[in-house]
Amino acid sequence: MADRQVDLQGIPEEFIKENGYGFLLDDEYIVPEGILLNAAEIDNAIKVQDEVYKIFKTELSNLVVTKQFDFLNLPQKMVDLICYSFNKNHNHILGRFDFAGGIDGIPLKLLEYNADTPTMLPESSIIQDEFTKFYEEPYQHNILRRQLEVAFNSLTIAAGENHPSLLVTSLGHEEDKANAQLIMQIANEEGFEVAYADLPEIDFAIGEGIFVDAGEGMSAQYDFLYKLVPWEFICFDEPDLLDILHNLIMDDKLYVLNPPYAIVYQSKVFLDHVSRKYDLPFLLKSSRSSNDFIGQKYVEKVSFGRLGENISIYDERGKIIEKTEGDFGHFEKIYQEFAQLYKDHYGEYYQLSMFNVNGVASSISFRRGEKLIIDDDCQFVPHFESKIS
């Protein structure tokens, strides 16, 4: 087994601070270390992401045609929005697949798809790119920023003669606002008028659109909304907001990124649906019943979990060997066969992520932790292509 961990000459600390991401330097989240992949491993990750995205899109298309959404347990107005946004070809602009394995012959296995509000955007794009100055072999699979530029340019062109305006929103968490900052910068460079507002600051006006206080008694209206607020939060915690968005989107008063249909990709229940239909080496067996995993190691998740929370790993005898608490335990439980993570010679585990933009594989990055469950205490690790076998 090759040693894939490399010590770098440093970290782009000045670059990170100058671009407003200084908080990422806290708690050794950014470290002067990288991980090596060979060309075959990178090519395989790209190929698998392409296949998985195609399968997800095909299965969602089938659901839209058959209207068989009951297994997802979503409100009817959310189902309406899913079908409408998919049929209108609203851009699924940004997602992030998380995988186990993919290194040193460990099979690459899909863990989940962060299809709605993926974060890690600054570090996986511009910061990872800046890391190339600290290693002798600078190639990375990282075209994330470039692909986002193409995506927002296409949206600008589609807007035609109308001057496109984009409002970016979140619930105000520092990490979300950092991701919002990069989206705003790229969109502005591609011709959008941009602004940011926390969700409570936005006036969602039925039949009209979305507005933000512009001062001096004036308000500004925006045609596009990029949200770092999960669709499931809107569905289950803010039903009044769902009603308004249902009206605005279906009357073409507002274009939301990511679109409503992203919630289907995001749901772990959809993983169960897909794994039952496709017997492919990169898809893990998933189920709503733990009885399907008697005598084997498996993982318990929730349909809409985040941040590595509310996850339990069971051994072959059904005993918990690792567990995290969290805020998402009220969602439906989903069970998935256990997949092996790459482990370095220091005993730390690596989880591979692949960002995609409009379905295009755009950036590989890694998170690393001391435990099998990669959570908020992990570190970000850039990758480099090497000629290792």
Task: Report what the structure shows.
It is a single chain. The chain is α+β, with helices and mostly antiparallel strands and 389 residues long. 31% of the residues lie in helices and 26% in strands. It contains ten helices and 21 strands. The protein has helices at 13-18, 39-66, 76-87, 121-130, 144-158, 174-189, 231-237, 239-250, 262-266, 268-277, and strands at 5-7, 33-37, 95-100, 109-114, 165-170, 193-198, 203-205, 209-215, 218-222, 224-227, 255-257, 286-287, 298-302, 312-314, 320-323, 333-337, 342-343, 349-357, 360-369, 379-381, 383-385. The strands form five sheets. Strands 3, 4, 17, 18, 19 and 20 form a six-stranded antiparallel sheet that branches. A five-stranded antiparallel sheet has the order 12-16-13-14-15, covered by helices on one side. Strands 6-5-10-11 form a four-stranded parallel sheet, covered by helices on one side. Strand 5, helix 6 (174-189) and strand 6 (193-198) form a beta-alpha-beta unit. The longest helix has 28 residues, at 39-66. It is globular. The model has no long low-confidence stretch (mean pLDDT 94).
